[in-house]
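Design request, tokens follow.
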């Protein structure tokens, strides 16, 4: 069985107020061309179809035209879930009008698998939309006696309970594919810095304090796990647990990523072979760092670029020169080096002989344009001493 897996379309997203709808349509056309030529059995959309819960009419039209062509022109089944950016009720309502579009957005829909047969037998698809632990807990409270109710406070606990119920009902003779949207890792292996990096990829964090992480052990027993949420295409430890990545570069931090869609060949014995097909981008998203002397006409490009120039001051003349070469420059900044000797000396001079209260007085004066009142000083000193034991340093 041939499966096309993609995710994080984010239709309607802008990049620093620059609409990306034309870029998104260009990429979606490549998916329809692949479907036309290679005729996969299934297209999986693993969440974040739109960038907003209430997308614009134009964004809706772009996605609708794509889905309509896949379903009605190429007769390809679509299995889709809502992500954390999507409006679940909105998607659920819209999908009801499209025959051949199997969309899951609610907790009570997760436990009815969709089945497709090939020459080797049945394949069951379980679709798990993005749901908060509170939403999963609410669903299980409605069907579980109080004395048997499991603890569901984190995304990992929610996934464990959901997959446990799925394991009880899935056909042992079938092959199993699960589609989910979230931060799947090995619990304890993702550092706070890596979680922030995931946010930098263009994603807003699902939660705080580590409760957003989902342990791979709940999902790895399935024959293929189609994930959405992180924007870089990669596997999680094993080949059959994969993020497809986003269809376009949606932030500066994604500029070095290679965007692709995932082609999965599910064999009769449940093993998979994976192929990443690259997207061609109408306009790339790039970071460029150069000196003023390197701003030459030969570099001209219509790509979206974040430009850093090794210069003391960004002048109107320099901005005009950059825009002549990169008309779609999204940001022009000067290169800021690490503290040089002068900067270190200025910093040392600034801090010399001052304590925390002195800095608070200066900050308050500069922002409020009036001195810090005595009762405000006393309150700060009391609180600071409780925390640190003093106001010095």
């Amino acid at each position: 069985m041939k499966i096309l897996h993609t995710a994080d379309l984010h239709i309607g997203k802008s990049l620093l107020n620059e609409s990306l709808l034309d870029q998104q349509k260009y990429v979606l056309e490549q998916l329809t061309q692949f479907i036309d030529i290679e005729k996969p059995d299934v297209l999986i959309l693993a969440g974040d179809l739109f960038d907003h819960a209430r997308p614009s009419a134009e964004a809706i039209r772009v996605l609708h035209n794509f889905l309509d062509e896949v379903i009605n022109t190429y007769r390809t089944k679509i299995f889709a879930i809502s992500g954390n950016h999507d409006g679940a009720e909105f998607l659920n309502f819209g999908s009801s009008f499209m025959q051949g579009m199997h969309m899951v957005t609610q907790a009570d829909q997760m436990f009815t698998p969709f089945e497709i047969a090939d020459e080797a037998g049945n394949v069951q698809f379980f679709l798990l939309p993005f749901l908060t632990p509170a939403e999963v807990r609410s669903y299980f409270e409605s069907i579980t006696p109080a004395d048997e109710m499991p603890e569901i406070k984190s995304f990992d606990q929610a996934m464990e309970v959901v997959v446990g119920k799925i394991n009880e009902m899935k056909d042992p003779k079938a092959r199993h594919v699960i589609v989910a949207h979230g931060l799947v890792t090995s619990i304890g292996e993702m550092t706070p810095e890596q979680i922030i990096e995931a946010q930098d990829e263009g994603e807003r964090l699902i939660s705080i304090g580590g409760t957003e992480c989902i342990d791979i052990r709940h999902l790895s027993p399935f024959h293929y796990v189609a994930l959405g949420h992180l924007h870089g295409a990669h596997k999680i430890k094993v080949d059959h647990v994969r993020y497809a990545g986003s269809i376009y570069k949606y932030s500066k931090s994604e500029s070095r990523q290679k965007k692709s869609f995932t082609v999965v060949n599910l064999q009769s014995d449940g093993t998979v072979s994976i192929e990443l097909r690259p997207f061609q981008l109408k306009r790339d998203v790039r970071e460029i760092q150069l000196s003023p002397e390197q701003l030459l006409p030969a570099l001209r490009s219509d790509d979206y670029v974040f430009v850093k120039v090794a210069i003391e001051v960004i002048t109107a003349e320099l901005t005009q020169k950059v825009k002549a070469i990169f008309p779609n420059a999204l940001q022009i900044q000067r290169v800021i080096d690490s503290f040089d000797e002068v900067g270190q000396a200025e910093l040392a001079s600034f801090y010399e002989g001052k304590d925390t209260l002195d800095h608070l007085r200066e900050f308050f004066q500069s922002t409020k344009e009036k001195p810090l009142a005595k009762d405000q000083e006393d309150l700060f000193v009391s609180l600071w001493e409780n925390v640190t034991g003093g106001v010095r340093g």
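Comment from the thread starter after seeing the answer: thanks! The longest helix spans residues 21-38.
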